[in-house]
Amino acid sequence: MSEKFYSLLRYHLIDKALVEKGHASLMDLQEELAMLSFGVEISEEMLEKDLKNMKTDENLAYFAPLVYNEETLNYAYSDTSYSIQKLPLNVFEKEGLKLVVQYFDLIKDHKNLHGLKGMIQKLVDTIKIRDNNENLDSPDFVDSELPPGFGGSKFLGSLIEAIQTKKVVRLYYHPFYEDKPYFTIIHPYLIKEFKGRWYLIGLNDTKQEIRTYGLDRIWELEETSDKYIPRTFNSAEYFKNTVGVISPLGSPPEVQIEVSKHQAQYLITQPLHGSQYIESENDDFVIFNYKVHPTYEFKALILAMGKDVRVLKPETFKRAILNELNDAILAYGR
């Protein structure tokens, strides 16, 4: 790792500490930067130099409003709204970002990164687009869709560690459909990402059932000394017959939909579910079959196609879609 890139990492960790804590001593900053030490102590002299660079280095162009309190021996930003995260990337940061992206591009096919290839490729493509945008007179030739952020990521590290070390966790959890949060004991098995949100899949200790929990709905998390119950389900099989993060018990029904010819072309190139196959077609419609649980997420996909789709079976799912459409008509008539 180059010294220049190593310095950038220190600057950003210093900034993170000052923004989150409001102030920090040199000892506090040494603890924050310990993860970067690689066995080499980060001296007070090095930190003082970093702080000076953040404040005055014209190449960095941070011009951080750093102040030092002689009484408390703490550093802080005089402008509490300041953060280097709010500034444009400088030339050194752009170079560092390109190095990271190039590295990820090289290793995205590694067996240990199975399942992340698409996410890494999106990162690589987006950085290429942004880089080209800055070098052109008319940069608005590509508009990449990116989620604003992954909800609940602050608990991600703790939950991954709990899964790896087989620890039971106690959540203070507030689902959308409840008025108040509640405590629940979970044996964590899997972290799953879906549409820009992180979810925990685990065994609910009280109900002895596999349940799904949105990480952005967790208020508090702590490990317990309870005996961990190892998982007995295969994640690939568990989600095989569903769309999204909820997998109902039992075998899925056969779902059949009739789709207009032009809309069907989208489904042929991007299936709604892995079980999709074409039952029949004519000049006007294509009939698709699925072996899938008609969950909320699957229902939303059907409703999104509007008049271009009609559910043929099962009858219960057909009525559910019809009720949703009738309720929508009534809502517009209020």
Describe this structure in words.
The protein is α+β, with helices and mostly antiparallel strands and about 325 residues long. It folds into four domains: about 5-85, Arc Repressor Mutant, subunit A, CATH 1.10.10; about 90-135; about 160-240, SH3 type barrels (Roll); about 255-330, Alpha-Beta Plaits. The chain has ten helices and eleven strands. It has helices at about 5-20, 25-30, 45-55, 90-105, 115-135, 155-165, 235-240, 260-270, 295-305, 315-330, and strands spanning about 65-70, 75, 170-175, 180-195, 195-205, 210-215, 220-225, 255-260, 275-280, 285-290, 310-315. The strands form three sheets. A five-stranded antiparallel beta sheet has the order 6-5-4-3-7. The chain has a four-stranded antiparallel beta sheet with strand order 9-10-8-11. The chain has a two-stranded antiparallel sheet with strand order 1-2. Strand 5 (about 195-205) and strand 6 form a beta hairpin. The longest helix is centred in the first third of the chain and has 19 residues, at about 5-20. The protein is elongated, with a radius of gyration of 26 Å.
